[in-house]
Amino acid sequence: MAMSFFDQFASPSYLGIPLIAIAITLPWVLYPTPTSRWINNRLITIQGWLMSRFTNQLMLPLNVGGHKWALLLTSLMLFLITINMLGLLPYTFTPTTQLSLNMGFAVPLWLATVIIGMRNQPTVALGHLLPEGTPIPLIPVLIIIETISLFIRPLALGVRLTANLTAGHLLIQLIATAVFVLFPMMPTVAILTATVLFLLTLLEVAVAMIQAYVFVLLLSLYLQENV
């Protein structure tokens, strides 16, 4: 029984074809396509306004050189939010519960920020490894610690997103199972548990959006250090 709780995180396949490709591609089909008209419908207008506000907020601390990343970061944010939200629907698969997928997003983007910093301003980029005013005996230790923390960043990005979504899905499934088991025996307790399940679902909707925002925000902060 305990093992079946983790079956929802296994990548599904049909006739030997992994369905994770469809789960990754499907969100792009759901977005309304802007038209060339002067006046759009309400859905496209709201979508454009939200993306414009998010892009402005994200690019605010960056200089002009970092604005080249606006399209990439905004698209990644929208993509992660859509995947996370669709994963909360019944009988669906959440690709972002796979650490391999999240690391596939985190490592190349983090590495790109490091390469940009080393190419454009190597002195400043290497200066982050040694805080100003460090006592001479602590210099080797701090350089090692800062280097380790630098290489842990992509791992933290991927693990944070994976762990939060996985924990939320497990809690929802555990409490939903408790509701079905308790309802024939203790209906009152089952109703109270169902209320907790409803509140937890609302919390998971917020977590799905917040974790996507945190993922992109941290990438923008890493970019800010290197541009």
TrEMBL record:
Membrane topology: Multi-pass membrane protein
Main location (coarse class): mitochondrion
Keyword tags: ATP synthesis, CF(0), Hydrogen ion transport, Ion transport, Membrane, Mitochondrion, Mitochondrion inner membrane, Transmembrane, Transmembrane helix, Transport
Transmembrane segments: 12-31, 69-89, 101-118, 138-159, 171-199, 205-223
Taxonomy, superkingdom: Eukaryota
Pfam families linked to this entry: ATP-synt_A
Catalytic activity from the UniProt record: H(+)(in) = H(+)(out)
CC terms in the record's Gene Ontology section: mitochondrial inner membrane; proton-transporting ATP synthase complex
SUPFAM superfamilies per UniProt: F1F0 ATP synthase subunit A
Subcellular location per the Swiss-Prot or TrEMBL entry: Mitochondrion inner membrane
GO molecular function (one): proton-transporting ATP synthase activity, rotational mechanism
Family stated for the protein in its record: Belongs to the ATPase A chain family.
Assembly, per entry: Component of the ATP synthase complex composed at least of ATP5F1A/subunit alpha, ATP5F1B/subunit beta, ATP5MC1/subunit c (homooctomer), MT-ATP6/subunit a, MT-ATP8/subunit 8, ATP5ME/subunit e, ATP5MF/subunit f, ATP5MG/subunit g, ATP5MK/subunit k, ATP5MJ/subunit j, ATP5F1C/subunit gamma, ATP5F1D/subunit delta, ATP5F1E/subunit epsilon, ATP5PF/subunit F6, ATP5PB/subunit b, ATP5PD/subunit d, ATP5PO/subunit OSCP.
Name of the protein this chain belongs to: ATP synthase subunit a
Gene for this chain: ATP6
